[in-house]
Amino acid sequence: MYGRAHNQSNQRAIRADRDPLLRTVREPSSVRAAAKPMLLEQMREALRSRHYSQRTEATYVQWIKRFIFFHQVRHPAEMAEAEVNQFLTHLAVKEKVSASTQNQALSALLFLYRYVLDQELGQLGDVIRARKSKRLPVVFTRSEVKAVLSKLEDKQGLIAVLMYGTGMRLMECLRLRVKDIDFGLGEITIREGKRDNDRHTMLPEKARGPLQAQLARVDERAGAPSYRPVASAKGNKGCGACGWDC
After folding, report:
1. Torsion over CA: 30, 17, 14, 10 (sign)
2. Could you give the CA distance from residue 170 to residue 165 in angstroms, rounded to a whole number?
3. Is 168 exposed, middle or buried (CB count within 10 Å of its CB: 0-12, 13-18, 19+)?
4. Model confidence pLDDT, tens digit, residues 106-165
5. Model pTM score
6. Which domains does the chain have, with CATH numbers?
7. Please, what's the b/e burial string for 72-83 (b: 16 or more CB within 10 A of its CB; e: otherwise)?
8. CA 215 from centroid of its chain's CA atoms
9. 131 FRET partner, CA 20 to 30 A, in 142, 159, 170, 231?
10. Alpha-carbon span 173 to 162, nearest angstrom
């Protein structure tokens, strides 16, 4: 039993050494050093420390995986500009991706080499770039916008009105908290937006009534009133302990 378990352990160690997705990077010294996190885990930590969104993190990690497997599971530290060039050209020529998709892959690779492997990529040479399509923007008239919004009801309609009237992104709208809606000042505070930044935006008059009705429904289900900021001439004032109007 001991011999069999020992062999299985050795086989796992060999696979870990050969697979760059499993392999850990050890310090080149005679003294045994603590192993660093695996490559993809290092990538995730670097993205999170710079406040990239979860979607960007997942997308960048997928591009790194595709890059590694495109080059027969070689470790990115063993590759450089030539291999990046081959991969980007393959995306444009064989997979016929759009220009924005190719740029996304390039951004992921640049992040990997700059912030994880601590290497700067030089000139990528003659990368065949995906053709950027020229499209005329489609702009709705006011009547068309009203027609679309009139077909949406309940929560979906309120979300659409808020996004259209404030410029909020979808996840910013879905994460909106009651305390960040100020009916007195007529503004909305958006917390932890892109790159983890806060900002203010206007509260559309069109959304005021439906938003108050939604809050009333929430109060009715909860059996207690939701917190609502009360604006004063000099702004909101409270006890200062919690940052709300207490």
Report:
1. positive
2. 13
3. buried
4. 999 999 999 999 988 877 766 677 777 777 888 889 899 889 888 888 888 889 989 888
5. 0.58
6. 2-27+34-116 (1.10.150.130), 142-222 (1.10.443.10)
7. eeebbeebeeeb
8. 29
9. 170
10. 7
